[in-house]
Specification:
alpha/beta, Rossmann fold, four-stranded parallel beta sheet, 38% helix, globular
Length: 121
């Protein structure tokens, strides 16, 4: 079972929920376990919990939007840690381009994105 970390801006909550719905079959078949920040327990240290979940994942799924690129936490903490893990061969970064944004002027440009290389409708 692949362990996935879903990184998203809270402004994109509806998009994240739709992704969670799309992953339902893979979860049912035991092919993926997708972690999201709602799993953080009350009283837990946010930074430590998120960092541990990310470092113990095999996939980093980023829901990329203008809000994601604007988020210091998503972009500068989670994504930067994922890039380090990817360079070390410990994780695969999967950018999902949710809406038009300036992702091609970021390190995401070097990673194959979906849908169709980031072309959104």
């Amino acid at each position: 079972m692949a362990k996935a970390f879903i990184s998203y801006s809270h402004a994109d909550e509806k998009i994240k929920e739709k992704l969670h719905t799309h992953l339902a079959i893979l979860r049912r078949e035991g092919k993926i376990d997708a972690w999201q920040d709602q799993e953080i327990l009350v009283g837990a240290n946010l930074n430590q919990t998120i960092s541990f979940a990310l470092s113990s994942s095999e996939l980093f799924i980023a829901i990329v939007s203008p809000d994601y690129l604007n988020s210091n936490y998503c972009y500068e903490k989670e994504f930067q840690q994922a890039l380090e893990l990817q360079t070390a061969g410990k994780i695969i970064v999967v950018p999902i381009i949710a809406e038009h944004c300036d992702w091609l002027n970021s390190p995401f440009r070097e990673i194959k994105a979906v849908p169709n290389d980031g072309e959104t409708n």
